[in-house]
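User: Protease. Structure?
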Amino acid sequence: MTPHDLHPLELLSPAKNADIGIEAVNHGADAVYIGGPSFGARAGATNEVADIERLVKHAHRFGAKIFVTLNTILRDDELEPARKLIHQVYEAGADALIVQDMGLLELDLPPIQLHASTQTDIRSVEKARFLQDVGFAQIVLARELTLPQIRAIAAQTDCVLEFFVHGALCVAYSGQCFISHAHTGRSANRGDCSQACRLPYNVTDAQGRVVAHQSHVLSMKDNNQADNLAALVDAGIRSFKIEGRYKDMGYVKNITAHYRRLLDDLMAQRVGLRPASSGRTRHFFTPDPDRNFNRGSTDYFVNGRQQDIGAFDSPKHAGLPVGWVTRVAPGHFELESTTELHNGDGLSYFDLQRELVGVQVNRAERVDGAEGAGVWRVFPNEPVASLKDLRPGTEVHRNRDIAWDRTLEKKSSERRIAVSMHFEASTSGCRLRLQDEDGHRGEARLAQPLAAANDPAKAEAALREHLQKLGGTIFEATELQLHLAEVPFLPASAVNQLRRDAVAALEAARANAYPRPLPRARVEPPVAYPDDSLTYLANVFNHKARDFYARHGVKVIDAAYESHEELGEVSLMITKHCVRYSLSLCPKQAKGVQGVQGTIKAEPLTLVNGKEKLTLRFDCKPCEMHVVGKIKRSVLQQVPAAPITFYKSKPDRPPAAR
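Assistant: Predicted structure:
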């Protein structure tokens, strides 16, 4: 079996900026996704084209790819700037573009590969097949899918299937949340979500009774599919995506290294799989995903609906447990802990109202006990009296380990490509040939008379030493063969120059042979979209997108929610998460329970946060929840006009889910 017969597995890491992207590659990423100067779904994570080009050059040395996110919905006046930007990132060497807006497919684009963003909400075989047939080479499946649903899509498509395996979870189906825009004018579909899902709410029932008090009922735990990688491979996933374009360098290093090791272990156990890029990564630390910001972990719906998927107590990072408070004094408190504490650590605990309280350690001293164990005296950087509800018996967590942070601030990995070296020498000169693990070759020659060495053994040892000095390159020698009639005398400077020239030739050969991904051909004549009508949920915000869907057989096309045509109550969020289920109020849970069956109905609930009120309606057949509300008058006034009226009179609106 040749490498071309193997299925490549792609580890796809996020990058807020080029420096983080470079470290993602160094820590084992096969691909990196990064935002450009504008039009990305993370408005606070933008990068200039020159920085993307710098990242591309580094990534391509290892055969790793760079995907640029242009995955917001665009107004008509933004289409031309977006088109120009796409040409610029293509010229910078980007391998693919991640998009949501179908209007882009109607523009004059360079031959860049297109990937369908998670914002396109791919939950069905029909949607996946359609996006493949209109030219998407890779598609990001909805996070809510189960293994059988993924297998069904894989069986009916031949594009690359991508799936989020780690990081923060949006509670809504991606692209199907409009609460932020309705309440603040900040559109999630335009990269500026206000994260209403992380707020605390009172939940009341139809009779006005409080069923949950100040609970973060829309806040999910973080995604963690580490235990499901083999099952996801078997289901057809080939690209494993880490969330986090807002995350810092330490997060990207740690989580990339963690999944690099897991995937390498999986490939070592399986026949028919290979990494999607070149080289071997060595990490100078032991990855631990629990050390980074997280809200607890869940594998969400991959293995079916689970009870405990929400981070209802707090959307913040509590950290790892380190011990219990034993004593509280005026200027300090004491902890019984088996964990080594450091000056500058961040600690946290829950007060009596289950709100997370953070404490920064100004100074930590061991009172008694062995190394790393016993009682610690903690002097916080604020008065102890201000630490609400801190008392003996309080469980304390550490959400920042300063020693861990400093480990990741230093060089924490290296990535090398294996090469075999062949050195030949004769009386008229010498030649060094290199061949890397991918079959690329480079060589250098030294044409000058060579005399035999006076001390052959010493000269051969020195020759081997200098030829294998590849520490400053991306290569490592796994084989060195000397083809010598007799051992020549060569100055170290000559050997070093010969090696540098051969390495430069190999790098040039790799760069010239880099296989830039090609766009997927569109099926002609244009295939029909699975439905013949689209509501505001389709996020059509410009006339090119409208033309796209019309060309694919859609008869009725409503404008995106951001066009402000939906002034009444509509579904502002659609989600697989069910508050009734999480609060054990689901009729399906009560089915068959004596004395309970039939007494619980899927009646609406109400969410209240200050003056904000949202209605929860439950569509039990597909097992989905709709968060219903309407746009604020203040938002209608503050958002610049973007006239996107496709029809003079709108068709009847289907009722919101009941």
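The radius of gyration is 29 Å. The chain has 15 helices and 30 strands.
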